Amino acid sequence: MSEKPSDDEPSASELPDDAWEQFLRDAERNSQPSVPKEPSARARMVTERLRQQEARGESPPGWRTGPAWQEMNGRAARRRKLWAVLGVPLAVAVALVALKPSLLPGDPFGTDESPAAASPLPDETAAPSAAPGASDPETPTLDKPFAGSPALRWADGEAGIVLPEAEAVGPVPKDRVEQALKLTKKLLVGANLDPKAVRGARPEAALSVLDPKQPGVLDGLGTALRSPSRKHDPVTLFSRFDPDEVRPVGDVIKTRGRMTFKKGTQGGVAVRADYTFVYPVVRADGPTEVTRTIVRRVLDVELADPARYQVTQGRLLLMEYDQEIGNSSCDVHDGYLHPEFPSSGPTGAEPSGPTTDPYDRSKDIDHDQDECGTVSRT
């Protein structure tokens, strides 16, 4: 015989088991739930079942012992302890990043404007519109010989001589154009980047590219290398340093420039190369003060047609060449470049020309400027 609940009490059949279980758990924790004043037969039945489960050790989680909430509370306590341990160093790190965001890897806020953090410059494919911007006023060292120089972002050595895509020029086929470009690069490397030649040795690799049938060229260069003078000075084509005076810092020479080509006047293809090389050096006698010499070279060469002209197959005609040298003593014509160091005065003639920026590749070389000037930076 079932019991009929009073009008103000919910029917036991309408309350699921989990509701009554929650009520009993609340009762165990001395809570004050809103429940019927007298449990129904359903409630008594659920209570009896829970007591039997407890006697058999089968109490559900949360019944009397409450392992679930105890474990959860323990985990929460451990998290609070962990955050307490991490809190101080984390606060310090946040403060440091707030003061200097560039400490974050990758500089996500773009705050580090130093050249060292900047990516390498893309290849130069046309004349720049202006000189490079000002660099941080850092002093070059043995470990960082290009510190404070725009060349820090330039390519290293041969990597800076990127050949343009070859294509046919009039009757000159693509493969001949490609050959001319490669020979021009070989000339530039042999004259300005070959380690032995830079240290004062004879630039054999560069000389081997030039046509021996071109009147006066190789003879004139040979004279300049043997007996340098104002009229025949090898530094007008070759970058050479006196090994008794200075030695290079490391193996890297920074390079930047471009190469173009067009139809030549000797039945072949004409190539123009315009490149700047930056050489960090120290004195040979031991002091570690670093300085840099900057050399810009513009060469016009041609791979002529041997079927029409008296030329050597696979050799270049040297049509014209010019140079602009920054930070080398004036009016010294002994076949070498002579870098000047900040700690010592000029070793050559007193500069009388204008001040120029040796890194400015936006202008042509001034052919009419014979006076020896000064540079605005090295």
From TrEMBL:
Q: Where is the composition biased (Basic and acidic residues)?
A: 39-57
Which residues lie in Low complexity bias regions?
Answer: 126-135
- Keyword Transmembrane helix assigned to the entry: answer is yes
- Domain of life, per the record? Bacteria
Q: What keywords does the record list, in alphabetical order?
A: Membrane, Transmembrane, Transmembrane helix
**Annotated region described as Disordered, given as residue ranges:** 25-76, 110-150, 331-378
Which spans are transmembrane here? 82-99
Task: Indicate what this protein is called per its UniProt record.
Answer: Uncharacterized protein
